[in-house]
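Query protein
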Amino acid sequence: MTYPFPEPVVIDAEVFAELPVALRRPGVTSYWADRNRRGQAVDSFIEGPSFDRQGNLYFVDIPFGRVFRVTSSGEVGQIAEYDGQPNGLKIHADGRIFIADFQNGIMQLDPDKGEVTHALRDCDTEGFKGCNDLHFGHDGALYFTDQGQTGLQDPTGRVYRWQMDTGALTCLIDKVPSPNGLVLDLNEHMLFLAVTRANAVWRLPLSPNGRVNKAGLFIQFSGGRAGPDGLALTDQGGVVVCQTGMGLIWVHDVLGRPIAVVRSPQGLGTTNCAFGGPDGRTLFITESDSGSILKAEFAPELGISGAPMFSGWL
């Protein structure tokens, strides 16, 4: 069969850093593992990579409520531990670090003190189902997903926009079967949303008054043990999708056509990613099965680089 576009370039990632043995918790049970792994012990489950202005990469550990930081040389250190289940992490332009926590809502981390405090507990006193991931718009508005245990059996997951300067909290959509990673397009007229249990990425057009109209299917996947998880945006307007359970990260152009695919060298739990490196052409990936940070470098001729993050990195 002849396809109307070229086959995607295949790139093999390599290990950039691993969670040190001293920071792993083998044989230790946790509430998260008991409920999500049927009691199977896990020593970590990492997600939420995000760069600060200095080029340090932060990431979280869900079952043990921890936040880590890895330097540009690959040295990993623990920044905080608290009573929670951190899923996503993003950094504000002013340096504040925000966490989407399944147990507690939206949290804020002080990286110098290692303190994690509540930023947003609920919506009009109604508790969240279970916050999963988050993304900053250019104006500082925080977009986040409220996933809980939703799926095809219960398509009631929600996506919110929180304008922190005014305190306005808006539910953009409330009929999603497992909303996960999310990212705005370059002009912020479209919100791309990973819908894990539907094995898909949706597009949510934003009207001038900020409402979602004509939500639609952007990319449909198949196979795997889960589905699309974390998303990132290229500087060319393309969407990067972490297909966890397959050990793959797909890079699409602005039309959604696959132009490259990154393969994990170990483990299938490719959960989230973030662009970094001095030229923005290196993709860093959390591989949760092995507790590793992977990296994949895109050759200049591929024309793939990361869009700037709100933290000011890149």
Observations:
- DSSP finds one helix and 27 strands in the chain.
- The helical segments are 31-36.
- The first strand starts at residue 9 and ends at 12.
